[in-house]
Specification:
By secondary structure, the protein is of the alpha/beta class. It is built from 6 helices and 4 strands, in the order βαβαβαβααα.
Length: 176
């Protein structure tokens, strides 16, 4: 059985600030996220992709990472930190099942992404796909802190972007 014939159940909610709505193709973002999930064998997953302004991303970056600057994409995973001392909620089984498939949230700064696209001489649509795939990989536990991790993540990123003709975008450093 090929990967294409395995049934999938994805709920990818793409939310775009009104000021960028006419500039963003939500379907291509959704398709890029679905491609990385499918390629990595995640048959059921839900996540949210929010596309917003630099100032909001800067605030999130400051509040959650201690970095007072905008960035291209932030990933907020839904999986609890096993080392945290926070109590675990007792949820009804149907809600627990739904929450188990919720991977997390991505927040992309559209102006930052547009500037990055110009710097790397690619389209904003391609840049947004790259950031959606990059952020999704972070949500799935990938990182680029070591050369080995970076190689693994960049390979997964390139494979997910290849169907869109964007595979060469993975060969650069990322701010995320």
């Amino acid at each position: 059985m090929s990967l294409n014939s395995i049934p999938t159940d994805y709920a990818i909610d793409v939310q775009v600030d009104e000021e960028f709505a006419a500039l963003v193709d939500e379907q291509t973002i959704r398709a890029a996220v679905e491609e990385v999930l499918r390629q990595l064998g995640h048959n059921e997953a839900a996540l949210t992709v929010a596309i917003t302004n630099d100032e909001y991303v800067r605030q999130l970056n400051r509040d959650h990472r201690g970095v007072d600057a905008p960035t291209d994409v932030l990933s907020f995973g839904n999986q609890p930190d096993e080392d945290a001392d926070e109590p675990h909620l007792a949820l009804p089984p149907e809600l627990a099942d739904e929450m188990a498939s919720y991977v997390g949230d991505l927040v992309i700064a559209y102006p930052y992404a547009a500037q990055q696209a110009a710097r790397y001489e690619n389209s904003v649509a391609a840049e947004l796909r790259l950031l959606a795939v990059h952020g999704t990989l972070h949500l799935l536990g990938y990182d680029h802190a070591t050369p080995e991790d970076e190689h693994t993540m960049w390979a997964a990123q390139a494979a997910a972007l290849a169907p869109f003709g964007d595979h060469s975008l993975s060969h650069r450093n990322h701010d995320a």
